[in-house]
Amino acid sequence: xxxxxxxxxxxxxxxxxxxxxxxxxxxxxxxxxxxxxxxxxxxxxxxxxxxxxxxxxxxxxxxxxxxxxxxxxxxxxxxxxxxxxxxxxxxxxxxxxxxxxxxxxxxxxxxxxxxxxxxxxxxxxxxxxxxxxxxxxxxxxxxxxxxxxxxxxxxxxxxxxxxxxxxxxxxxxxxxxxxxxxxxxxxxxxxxxxxxxx
Length: 198
Description:
Layout: H1 2-15, E1 19-23, E2 31-33, E3 36-40, E4 43-49, E5 55-59, E6 71-74, E7 83-99, E8 106-113, E9 119-127, E10 138-143, E11 149-157, E12 166-174, H2 178-197
Antiparallel strand pairs: 1-12, 2-5, 3-4, 4-7, 5-6, 7-10, 7-11, 7-12, 8-9, 8-11
């Protein structure tokens, strides 16, 4: 009986783990775009910019780093021009890769916010002018054990040119739905009570 209870509790814990997803921009048409939305695994990210400047999706082809497939986002990232992404569900982790063709030194910034727009995580990663894709890829990410991530903003600075950092493979983990967790706990409780009666 004890094994059965432990098995049910273990299954409930495993089933309540985060759902992973990926935005890789492959489904998008190339060229300049304004705001847009991507969905994977029930998570929708709505992208926008702090200025009228358009994002671009570019075909990198043979210049794409391993794992990037062929299309990448080229946001209009330049000091005061930030990219914002809002999510329809809370996240526990958000991360993406970035890189350029060795134009100059860059600093990528990432900020994550909860539903009240309170900062819940931040990261800053330096990408040297000596680095270049496809071989050198920067990684930046934020994870939180506190309030769920409902939106992010990212931008770069320290460079003289706009539109020179490519972004790809935006990965995330969604917070498990409370209804799913409650149903699993209820089922585990019912099995435990049933076994005690027997």
